[in-house]
């Protein structure tokens, strides 16, 4: 019975999300859009997409989400994580796992995928560094907000198709890749050490 | 007289505790025997472990809880379900509820999550209920197939039912909330039961609700014994020894762990966690590593050869005596210089860590040893039983004549148990005169216990008076230590 409700709900929700997307297109604020599509026909695995909200380092980026629907949906929350790598205190920079109350104990059956995606968009606009998923990112967010902003913008441009290019950061990464370090590892290390080339190198070779 | 009956009468004021029974007479449990009638005199003052509690069956607990519910329903003119929400939210404190209810009815309703502090978002029901659309399953139903809690959020009965089932399967019962976004209103018992259909789910729900009620009630504790249904009731929440009247499990009323006097609840928890975390690692480090005598780095021995070379400073030394290898030559098997590391005065971080480890292991080994001894003494009890049987068969005395041996064995178990729990207490004590006093008393108790153990094993040749004298001494030492150091 539960599976039946889950599938029914997902099908009905598709119409809802599509409808809201049409509205946003009509209002010509396409950068606020959210999107959900099926991965296969089973209604168990979905792909979500949210646009980075304006006036944030994520602006201009498109972030892909993995959404898994449990059998007991909507009485239990969907399992959501970021596929696109993102630099954010409440999202793991390694696994994409999300720390958001409505995906845990504050979930309510009357919430929908649309609520979830909009809440995630809101999370990108307003991080909660005191309840972090990624401690390294949260520390940088609190102690060096400018550095955090630069890093998040850089990640958006590299992984989510964001517009801003940052030659000085790319230069540092190149210094490491020239030493034979894989590019993603170089970026992770530099981001974690506030782009301190020496300390990142030390960590990578220790 | 029967020791078993005596103990039950004193410790349990419950109706079903007194009849420990005639059949238990010969199978005395370690905790049942009370020996010295002098101790019974003015128990509360004499015995620091004295506790008043009762052992209740499920139906007795239900009656107790229902009395509270009825009291509220008649006094406040509310439904039993509502009364239960109040009681659960206020730890079953009737006076507190009455006061708050009289003071401000809507406040206590809000605090107990029965009504919302603000009116429900009018858009919610307008958006969905106009078309009789359930916002959970997105299906339309006639109005009578919808139900709503005090908050006004309306959903179809099928969704409520499916929702309750998922919650119950996850162990949630009294905490089931409304299905609307960020609505914290709780679903009362009658609401859930009016919508749950499957009998097995209804049954499970009621079991979970009962469990939650007992857990939220400060005077009640489930017996931690495996599959035991007994609930212990004590009017004061203190770390007292309670004994389940059915399964005989002994535990601390406050924390529910094994009884742990003279150590307090927090300390024993810290100790047990430490033992669970550290023991294996600590034992391994102690058994397999030593510090390099020159640079004090920690070295693990992973081969059989005793000629070691430190990987850090390249110093060659003997694993056995930690002396310089040069002095060993080819006759190192003759190495007899097994003594303290001569460089210990020059303490490195590693040496200090090892010192801390040594201290921990000192207490841990004794703790473990007494725990094992307790288990072994259960076997001793069996042996005593056999020996007595033989004697009775050989007509050297009757069962009654040898009864004092059981009492001695059960007293020995009780003393050793307390002794075991003195070690975590001592471990966390700060050095000073109080610790010296404690360890003095601990040593005294230990000595008397070993004396008693020796005499019990040779019971046939020991004079009965002598044995009973020894029992008295050991118990007095135990009580003295508890009186001085047990804080409840």
Automatic annotation (TrEMBL), chain A:
<dbReference type="InterPro" id="IPR023313">
    <property type="entry name" value="UBQ-conjugating_AS"/>
</dbReference>
<feature type="domain" description="UBA">
    <location>
        <begin position="168"/>
        <end position="206"/>
    </location>
</feature>
<protein>
    <recommendedName>
        <fullName>E2 ubiquitin-conjugating enzyme</fullName>
        <ecNumber>2.3.2.23</ecNumber>
    </recommendedName>
</protein>
<dbReference type="InterPro" id="IPR000608">
    <property type="entry name" value="UBC"/>
</dbReference>
<dbReference type="InterPro" id="IPR015940">
    <property type="entry name" value="UBA"/>
</dbReference>
<dbReference type="InterPro" id="IPR042614">
    <property type="entry name" value="UBCD4_UBA"/>
</dbReference>
<dbReference type="InterPro" id="IPR016135">
    <property type="entry name" value="UBQ-conjugating_enzyme/RWD"/>
</dbReference>
<keyword id="KW-0547">Nucleotide-binding</keyword>
<keyword id="KW-0808">Transferase</keyword>
<keyword id="KW-0833">Ubl conjugation pathway</keyword>
<keyword id="KW-0067">ATP-binding</keyword>
<dbReference type="GO" id="GO:0005524">
    <property type="term" value="F:ATP binding"/>
</dbReference>
<feature type="domain" description="UBC core">
    <location>
        <begin position="5"/>
        <end position="161"/>
    </location>
</feature>
<feature type="active site" description="Glycyl thioester intermediate">
    <location>
        <position position="99"/>
    </location>
</feature>
<dbReference type="Pfam" id="PF00179">
    <property type="entry name" value="UQ_con"/>
</dbReference>
<dbReference type="GO" id="GO:0061631">
    <property type="term" value="F:ubiquitin conjugating enzyme activity"/>
</dbReference>
<dbReference type="InterPro" id="IPR009060">
    <property type="entry name" value="UBA-like_sf"/>
</dbReference>
<comment type="similarity">
    <text>Belongs to the ubiquitin-conjugating enzyme family.</text>
</comment>
TrEMBL record, chain B:
<dbReference type="InterPro" id="IPR013083">
    <property type="entry name" value="Znf_RING/FYVE/PHD"/>
</dbReference>
<dbReference type="GO" id="GO:0008270">
    <property type="term" value="F:zinc ion binding"/>
</dbReference>
<dbReference type="InterPro" id="IPR047555">
    <property type="entry name" value="BRcat_RBR_TRIAD1"/>
</dbReference>
<feature type="domain" description="RING-type">
    <location>
        <begin position="134"/>
        <end position="178"/>
    </location>
</feature>
<dbReference type="InterPro" id="IPR045840">
    <property type="entry name" value="Ariadne"/>
</dbReference>
<comment type="similarity">
    <text>Belongs to the RBR family. Ariadne subfamily.</text>
</comment>
<dbReference type="InterPro" id="IPR044066">
    <property type="entry name" value="TRIAD_supradom"/>
</dbReference>
<keyword id="KW-0808">Transferase</keyword>
<dbReference type="GO" id="GO:0005634">
    <property type="term" value="C:nucleus"/>
</dbReference>
<keyword id="KW-0479">Metal-binding</keyword>
<dbReference type="GO" id="GO:0016567">
    <property type="term" value="P:protein ubiquitination"/>
</dbReference>
<dbReference type="Pfam" id="PF26000">
    <property type="entry name" value="UBA_ARIH2_N"/>
</dbReference>
<dbReference type="InterPro" id="IPR001841">
    <property type="entry name" value="Znf_RING"/>
</dbReference>
<dbReference type="InterPro" id="IPR047556">
    <property type="entry name" value="Rcat_RBR_TRIAD1"/>
</dbReference>
<dbReference type="InterPro" id="IPR002867">
    <property type="entry name" value="IBR_dom"/>
</dbReference>
<dbReference type="Pfam" id="PF22191">
    <property type="entry name" value="IBR_1"/>
</dbReference>
<feature type="domain" description="RING-type">
    <location>
        <begin position="295"/>
        <end position="335"/>
    </location>
</feature>
<dbReference type="Pfam" id="PF19422">
    <property type="entry name" value="Ariadne"/>
</dbReference>
<keyword id="KW-0677">Repeat</keyword>
<protein>
    <recommendedName>
        <fullName>RBR-type E3 ubiquitin transferase</fullName>
        <ecNumber>2.3.2.31</ecNumber>
    </recommendedName>
</protein>
<dbReference type="InterPro" id="IPR031127">
    <property type="entry name" value="E3_UB_ligase_RBR"/>
</dbReference>
<keyword id="KW-0539">Nucleus</keyword>
């Amino acid at each position: 019975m539960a599976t039946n409700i889950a599938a029914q709900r997902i099908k009905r929700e598709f119409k809802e999300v599509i409808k809201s997307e049409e509205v946003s297109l009509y209002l010509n604020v396409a950068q606020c859009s959210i999107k959900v599509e099926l991965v296969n026909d089973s209604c168990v695995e979905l792909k979500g997409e949210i646009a980075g909200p304006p006036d944030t380092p994520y602006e201009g980026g498109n972030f892909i989400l993995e959404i898994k629907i449990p059998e007991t949906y909507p009485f239990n929350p969907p399992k959501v994580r970021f596929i696109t790598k993102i630099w954010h205190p409440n999202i793991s920079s390694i696994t994409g796992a999300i720390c958001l109350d409505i995906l845990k104990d504050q979930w309510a059956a009357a919430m929908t995928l649309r609520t979830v995606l909009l809440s995630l968009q809101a999370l990108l606009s307003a991080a909660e560094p005191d309840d972090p998923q990624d401690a390294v990112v949260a520390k940088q967010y609190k102690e060096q907000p400018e550095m955090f902003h630069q890093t998040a913008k850089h990640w958006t441009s590299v992984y989510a198709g964001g517009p801003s290019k940052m030659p000085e950061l790319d230069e540092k990464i190149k210094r490491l890749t020239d030493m034979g370090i894989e590019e993603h590892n170089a970026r992770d290390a530099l981001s974690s050490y506030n782009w301190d080339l020496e300390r990142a190198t030390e960590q990578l070779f220790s | 007289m029967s020791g078993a009956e005596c103990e039950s009468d004193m410790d349990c004021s419950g109706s079903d505790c007194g009849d420990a029974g005639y059949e238990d007479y010969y199978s005395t449990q370690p905790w049942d025997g009370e020996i010295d009638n002098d101790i019974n005199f003015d128990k509360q003052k004499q015995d620091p472990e004295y506790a008043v509690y009762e052992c209740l069956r499920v139906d007795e607990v239900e009656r107790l809880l229902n009395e509270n519910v009825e009291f509220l329903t008649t006094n406040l003119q509310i439904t039993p379900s509502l009364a239960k929400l109040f009681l659960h939210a206020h730890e079953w404190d009737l006076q507190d509820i009455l006061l708050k209810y009289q003071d401000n009815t809507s406040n206590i309703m809000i605090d107990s999550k029965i009504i919302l502090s603000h009116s429900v978002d009018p858009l919610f029901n307008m958006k969905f209920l106009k078309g009789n659309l359930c916002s959970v399953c997105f299906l339309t139903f006639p109005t009578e197939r919808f139900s709503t809690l005090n908050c006004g959020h309306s959903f179809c009965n099928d969704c409520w039912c499916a929702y309750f089932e998922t919650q119950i399967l996850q162990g949630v019962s009294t905490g089931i909330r409304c299905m609307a976004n960020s609505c914290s209103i709780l679903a009362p018992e009658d609401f859930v039961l009016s919508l749950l259909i499957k009998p097995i789910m209804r049954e499970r729900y009621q079991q979970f609700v009962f469990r939650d009620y007992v857990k939220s009630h400060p005077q009640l504790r489930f017996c931690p014994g495996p599959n035991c249904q007994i609930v212990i009731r004590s009017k004061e929440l203190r770390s007292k020894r309670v004994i389940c009247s059915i399964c005989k499990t002994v535990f601390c009323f406050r924390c529910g762990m094994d009884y742990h006097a003279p150590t307090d609840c927090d300390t024993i928890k810290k100790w047990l966690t430490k033992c669970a975390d550290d023991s294996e690692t600590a034992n391994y480090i102690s058994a397999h590593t030593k510090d390099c005598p020159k640079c004090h780095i920690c070295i693990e021995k992973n081969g059989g050869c005793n000629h070691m070379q430190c990987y850090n400073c390249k110093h060659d030394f003997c694993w056995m005596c930690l002396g310089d290898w040069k002095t060993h030559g080819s006759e190192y098997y003759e190495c007899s210089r097994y003594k303290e590391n001569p460089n210990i005065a020059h303490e490195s971080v590693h040496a200090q860590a090892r010192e801390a480890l040594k201290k921990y292991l000192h207490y841990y080994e004794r703790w473990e040893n007494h725990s094992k001894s307790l288990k072994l003494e259960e076997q001793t009890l069996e042996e005593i039983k056999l020996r007595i049987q033989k004697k009775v068969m050989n007509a050297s005395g009757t069962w009654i004549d040898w009864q004092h041996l059981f009492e001695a064995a059960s007293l020995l178990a009780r003393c050793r148990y307390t002794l075991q729990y003195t070690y975590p207490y001592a471990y966390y004590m700060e050095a000073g005169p109080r610790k010296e006093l404690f360890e003095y008393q601990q040593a005294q108790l230990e000595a008397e216990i070993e004396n008693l153990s020796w005499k019990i094993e040779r019971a046939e040749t020991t004079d009965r008076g002598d044995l009973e004298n020894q029992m008295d001494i050991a118990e007095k030492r135990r009580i003295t230590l508890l009186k001085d150091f047990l804080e409840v």
